[in-house]
Design brief:
This is SulP family inorganic anion transporter. The protein is built from 24 helices and 7 strands. It has 559 residues and is of the alpha/beta class. It is elongated.
Length: 559
């Protein structure tokens, strides 16, 4: 009996296959589990203080950062389209989350997170992940630098131990003004712990880069504060004792007014989460030589956000620093991310009382280091020097993110980047025009600068012939002399034609017909010819020929 070989999965099926399934199909043994265990533990050690710090900076309790990292991180690795992605709370969301909490309360934040999960699943199901990655580089650099500035500003009050007379403003300029007015309340103990945390993390990174600098710094700061009895705020004094496990899951409230209030925040979470996650996956691809599945990654991020919301967590996204740590720690695949979540759960169950002694100034120092590392300073200055267009997109994005809104910065920056691209592409397109003498029968011998009074005119379009270039090229085509009786438009150097370009050719063909002249189109690819035919450019009104030589031979025979 002959056994049939199983058919390979279809492209659509493989596109939505979690990387965990792929890794297990390749074969997964004890050695891989050991390496993933080491990587997962390493990432968990990094994620433990960071998750609590991000949660506190976002205006919620530190336990919710742990819920997000545990539930969301596990689901991202279980279902994700990246081998090495580590999901959890991210510094990029601090401003949005804190603003959402201030506007809608904790219940609104949880509902917005759940709705964002649904939206992310929709983006992945519609296969929009491929397009989300097409964000201009100046936009990503300006956006990341802007977030770094906002995070830094948000941690100054805890870092210096300032006592503000009222709520800390969200906007950066009023925030700086409020901090300056509270300068007399500066706490030397808080400043010493915060600065010491920064110094220890920085020193360990330089001298012992393999050591968990953040955890060591937090541990030393906590021990010093407890032993010396320093008058500083800690997690326990501000938020009480951390729970020793996950809460019971529960659906958020879905009343219509609450949904309307949470919906704009959900859209912002979705946009930022999709961008951040796919950028993190691209970073992991560059470090590992692998290729992630964008749409499956978005679906996984959506499920993770919904799962985190059920347990009282908030926005989950791919985290670049923790993902890079995972790759460098020797991860073999998604199992390390799942183990990282389980390790965090174990830490929470066993060490919750100890976490209460962590000074908030030390957590602020951790986030200052995160902000400094996020800023991409060399890339920022490099783009400022590269070109005026890139510098404008960079600065507009950066300034809007810092002084206006994250989503507004991304949207406006993306629009400016698109306009810059269109301008550059339109400048690259041109139309070479000239007359061919009988001796110029070879396509390569065509020289538009060598003109004569022949009866055949050849136009060679170079570059993408799209709406951005159609106006310039159309003005050339409109200046056609009435004497030549045959015209050849060559598309050999046209990689792209859109409906606007096809319409310009249609207008040329109509003019040719009114004058009793013949238009030849040469060098058209199948796709370009399809668009031209869809525009109504059929034979015999327009004659399609393979090369300029073929068109010339026929045109001269008919003259």
């Amino acid at each position: 009996m002959t056994l049939s070989r199983p058919l390979p999965p279809s492209p659509s099926a493989s596109e939505f296959t979690p990387k965990l399934v792929t890794v297990l199909r390749e074969g997964y043994g004890v050695d891989a589990l050991r390496r993933d265990g080491v990587a997962g533990l390493t990432v968990a050690i990094v994620a433990l203080p960071l998750s609590m710090a991000i949660a506190i900076a976002s205006g919620v309790g530190p336990e919710r950062g742990l819920y997000t990292a545990i539930v969301g991180g596990f689901l991202v690795s279980l279902l994700g389209g990246s081998r090495y992605q580590i999901g959890g709370p991210a510094g990029a969301f601090i401003v949005l989350v804190s603003a959402c909490v201030a506007a809608t309360g904790l219940s609104g934040l949880i509902l917005a997170t759940f709705l964002s999960g649904l939206m992310l699943i929709g983006l992945g199901a519609l296969r929009l992940g491929t397009y989300i990655k097409f964000i201009p580089y100046p936009v990503t650099v300006g956006f990341t630098a802007g977030i770094a500035v906002i995070i830094l500003a948000s941690q100054l009050s805890e870092f210096f131990g300032l006592r503000l007379t009222g709520p800390e403003p969200a906007a950066i300029l009023p925030k700086i003004e409020a901090l300056w007015q509270a300068r007399a309340s500066l706490s030397p103990a808080a400043l010493a712990l915060g600065a010491g945390t920064v110094a220890i993390i920085t020193g360990i990174k330089r001298l012992r880069p393999g050591w968990p600098g953040m955890l060591i710094a937090i541990g030393l700061a906590s021990a010093l504060a407890a032993v010396a009895g320093l008058p500083v705020d800690t997690i326990a004094s501000r938020f009480g004792e951390l729970p020793r496990g996950l809460p019971q899951p529960g659906m958020p409230s879905f009343s219509w007014p609450q949904v309307l209030a949470a919906l704009p925040w959900a859209v912002s979470f979705t946009l930022l989460g999709a961008i951040e996650s796919l950028l993190s996956a691209v970073v992991a691809d560059g470090m590992s030589g692998r290729q992630h599945r964008s749409n499956m990654e978005l679906v996984a991020q959506g499920v993770a956000n919904m799962g985190a919301a059920l347990f009282g967590g908030f926005c989950v996204t791919g985290t670049i620093a923790r993902t890079a740590t995972n790759v460098r720690a020797g991860s073999r695949g998604p199992v390390s991310g799942m183990l990282h979540a389980l390790f965090l759960l174990a830490f929470m169950m066993l060490a919750a009382p100890l976490a209460g002694h962590v000074p908030l100034a030390a957590l602020a120092g951790v986030l200052l280091v995160v902000a400094w590392n996020m800023a991409e300073k060399q890339e920022f200055w490099g783009l400022l020097r590269s070109s005026s267009g890139d510098a404008a997109v960079l600065l507009v994005t950066f300034l809007l993110v810092v002084f206006r809104d994250l989503t507004e910065g991304i949207v406006v920056g993306f629009a400016l980047g698109g306009l810059l691209f269109i301008h550059r592409m339109s400048e690259a397109a041109r139309v070479d025009v000239g007359h061919l003498r009988a001796a110029d029968e070879d396509d390569e011998a065509f020289d538009p600068a060598e003109a004569s009074d022949g009866d055949v005119v050849v136009y060679r379009i170079r570059g993408a012939f799209f709406f951005g270039a159609a106006a310039t090229a159309g003005s050339v085509l409109e200046r056609i002399a009435d004497r030549p009786r045959a015209f050849v438009v060559d598309f050999s150097d046209v990689p792209l034609l859109d409906s606007t370009g096809a319409h310009a050719i249609d207008l040329l063909a109509q003019r040719m017909r009114r004058g009793g002249r013949q238009l030849y189109l040469t060098g058209t690819t199948a796709e370009i010819r399809r668009l031209l035919l869809a525009q109504g450019l059929h034979e015999p009104e327009v004659l399609y020929r393979a090369t300029i030589r073929d068109a010339l031979a026929e045109a001269r025979a008919l003259l």
